[in-house]
Structure formats: C-alpha cells, structure tokens
Amino acid sequence: MRNTPLDGPGMGYGPAAGGDRRGSPVVTLVLALVCLVLAATLAVVLLRPSGQTAAPVVTVTASAAAPTPTPGTPAPASPTVAGSTAPSASPTPSGTDATLRADEPEGVRAAATTFMRGWLEPKKAVRVQLLQVSATDSLLDRLADVDPAKLPDAKPKGDLVVPSASDFAAVADQKMSDGTTVRMELVYEPASRYGWLVDTVGPLE
Questions:
Q1: Which residue, 7, 47, 89, 121, shows the most beta carbons closer than 10 Å to its own?
Q2: CA dihedral in degrees (93, 102, 170, 152; nearest 10)?
Q3: Rounded Cα–Cα distance for residues 133 and 146 (Å)
Q4: Is this prediction's pTM over 0.70?
Q5: What's the 3-state SS for 99-118?
Q6: How far apart are CA 112 and CA 186, in angstroms?
C-alpha cells in the first residue's frame, strides 16, 4: 500500500515519534505512594476502638495494720480526754468477812458485854442509853420499846466467848443461867464508842 501525504508522524494522530516518555512512570509511583498512605491511615482509624478512654489511675495508700495482741500482753491504755482522769480500780480493804482473824479484835468483847446489859435492863431510859453505844440503829429501834415482861429472866453466866471474827464482822456467845446460849453478831463500825456494834441477837441453836 502506498503512503499518502496525510499519513505519517507529522499529522498529529498520536505522540510524536521519539518523544520523552519518562514522566508517566513517576506519576504512577506517586499515586501508588499516596494510595498506600491513605490506606494505612484508614486502617489505623478503623482498627482503633471507638470511644476508648484512658484507664483511670488508682492510687493505693498502704496503711499500717494494727498489731494483734499476743496472749498475756496487756492491751494499750485508751487515750483520755483532756481534763478528765482515767477510771481507776477501787481499792479493796485489807480483809473481808471471809478472812478470819487469829486474834480477837479490840472492842468486840466490850461492845457485846454492854449490849447484854442494855438488852436485859428493865428500865427503858437505861436500856436505850446502853444500846445506843452497842447496837446498830435498826436493832435499837426494835429493842428500845420492848415490854419488860418479855425480857429474858436468865442472867449471863460465865465469860463471854468470841468464837470467830474478821476485820469487819464478829460473833460473840454468852451462856445464860438457864443453860441457853445467846449469840450476837457484830459489825465493824469505827465511829462507834467501841468500834463494833451488835446487829443481830438470838438463841444459839
């Protein structure tokens, strides 16, 4: 086929023969890099959990545990408020009713002997005077107005005996002429004349 003047590279149907083609690969490489960056950015955004918040920081303060008391170790004293004093145990007396003494307390015999005289006294004025210094108030109230006809006819015989006594209580026995024995129970009363007062009286059974 014969070429016509309209055919050939000079007619502008395509790129000129021998033209520079280096620009096309560079553009393609740039576009590829841009796509990779966009894809990486999108992947990071999609993979990150939505609504994620920073975990709260919890501060734990260690406190010293109270020591456990060991058996036999006294507990620490409680703090007292300013202006007040800690309660203290009440002092106990040196003896009790159950602690018997080996000796006879001073004043027991005198108080019991005076009481016997007052109890058997027929005259009320003398009786009350003797009982006021030897009997408790409750016993005095019961014996002050006793009818003389109801008083014992027997009289004390022999010495009075103190079979037992402690620092706060004592027992005194008095034999009578009719063969009976009168028992008196005394209590310690330091404010009285003899230091002891008869609290109860009755026949020893």
A1: 121
A2: -170
A3: 18
A4: no
A5: CECCCCCCCHHHHHHHHHHH
A6: 8
